[in-house]
Amino acid sequence: MELGVYGLNAKATLEPTVTARLARRAEELGYKSWWVGEHVVLPSPRTPDSPLQPTDPMLDPLIHLAYVAAVTERMELGTGIVILPSATPWCSPSRPRAWTCLAQAGCCSAPG
After folding, report:
1. Does 90 reside within a domain?
2. Which of 5, 7, 15, 44 has its CA 20 to 30 A from that of 31?
């Protein structure tokens, strides 16, 4: 069985050093993949089944994955949800290209 982690692009992991530490530790522990998603609609006020407050920050999944790629060696990366229709049209096509370029160069940053 191969295990991965999911949902670490929000709340406590907004700080790049925290993300780097968690991603490296997951890799050391043998986790094979790192998955993220995004939410554009959260109920306000929050309902018991909602994972986040409507005001909780969440990093862009592709930018976040670029950062994780730069700080790990073997981690496979994936998105559970990317909502392209809600993104700015001129920006959306460039995000995957930026992700690949930054990951290969090993130099990226995440807001935080």
Report:
1. yes
2. 15
